[in-house]
Automatic annotation (TrEMBL):
SUPFAM superfamilies: NAD(P)-binding Rossmann-fold domains (SSF51735). GO terms for cellular component: cytoplasm. InterPro entries: NAD(P)-bd_dom_sf (IPR036291), ODC_Mu_crystall (IPR003462), ODC_N (IPR023401). The lineage of its organism: Bacteria, Pseudomonadati, Pseudomonadota, Betaproteobacteria, Burkholderiales. This is Ornithine cyclodeaminase. Pfam families: OCD_Mu_crystall. It comes from Ottowia oryzae. NCBIfam families: PRK07340.1 (NF005603).
Length: 309
């Protein structure tokens, strides 16, 4: 196959939600996967350049993206870039995928996999905090892959919350905007925080059967969750991180003074290897802290190559 440049809609078509969740789980059991630490280059005005390579026995890829928080609220996206996919055997470039689409879909799919493995209660309703690209992706994947039908949306922008509500209703889901995430947290066994992570957006302590996916903060300086919330879950429930990269990137947990390296990773969960991990056998609320890992992009690349033919 000759190399193909896929725009955002075509990239999304190659990454259907249930298949992407399953591919991410399969990647975690593939011994041929090799993912070095990502390169993070700080730029002016709080922006970052990320270079994220990874490969398995057949597929190699590199994601090169920028994160520009100053673009929030403008016509320019905060995340821009591409994922370039190669065939390992021949070295041939196979695909160039839209980077923001891959990032949005794989991040939400990882949250869905974590919920499938860890959530005490998948009945909903689900509270979405943040009504941007990740908020939309989490609505879509939790509905398509886990069957959640009821959503509440909280956002600093009423217009953005209303737009996501209308999008969810267009998918046949029940959805409403709420002015205060903390006020409804006790009604929601499922929560996802999907904000730019410039300030705490959730302070309410979770109910005992809650599952929280916190995806907005992916540097030590970023934060979405109150330290008291994080410490509460560490004491009474379980904290799981998406990968060991979170040990030095999980701003929510680091700012709460928690020993991030002691918490299980999603790979530990999939492998059933939780003995000795902090909170590994404990019931109660679950906090899944996602910081991003090139392995998730590799899973998307593997699926896209098959889907593109």
């Amino acid at each position: 196959m000759t190399d193909t440049l896929l725009d955002a809609p075509r990239t999304a078509q190659c990454l259907p939600w249930p298949a992407l969740v399953n591919e991410i789980e399969a990647l975690l059991t593939d011994a041929s996967v090799s993912v070095p630490p990502r390169l993070v280059v700080p730029m002016d005005q709080g922006a970052y350049l990320f270079a994220m390579p990874g490969c398995d026995a057949r597929t190699a890829m590199t994601k090169l993206i920028t994160f520009t928080p100053a673009n929030a609220g403008t016509a320019r996206p905060t995340i821009q870039g591409d994922v370039t996919v190669f065939d390992v055997a021949t070295g041939q470039r196979r695909l160039i995928l839209d980077g923001p689409t891959v990032t949005a879909r794989r991040t939400a799919a990882v949250s869905a996999l974590a919920a499938r493995q860890l959530a005490p209660n998948l009945a909903g309703p689900m509270l979405i905090v943040g009504a941007g690209v990740q908020g939309m992706a989490h609505v879509e994947v939790f509905a398509a892959a886990l069957g959640v039908r009821r959503f509440l949306v909280a956002s600093r922008s009423a217009a953005s919350a209303d737009a996501l509500v209308q999008h969810a209703r267009g998918l046949g889901l029940q959805a409403d905007a709420v002015p205060d995430a903390d006020a409804v947290a006790d009604d929601c066994p499922l929560i996802a925080t999907c904000t730019p992570a410039s300030a705490v957006v959730l302070r309410a302590l979770p109910r005992p059967d809650a599952f929280i996916a916190a995806v907005g903060a992916f540097t030590p300086q970023m934060v979405e969750l109150a330290p008291e919330l994080c410490r509460h879950v560490a004491q009474y429930g379980r904290i799981v991180v998406d990968s060991r990269d979170a040990d030095h990137e999980a701003g929510d947990l680091l700012q709460a003074g928690l020993p991030v390296a002691d918490f299980a990773s999603l790979a530990d969960v999939v492998h059933g290897d939780l003995l000795g991990q902090a909170g590994g056998q404990r019931s109660g609320p679950v906090l899944f802290k996602s910081c991003g890992w090139a392995g998730w992009d590799l899973a998307a690349a593997r699926l896209a190559v098959r889907a593109a033919g």
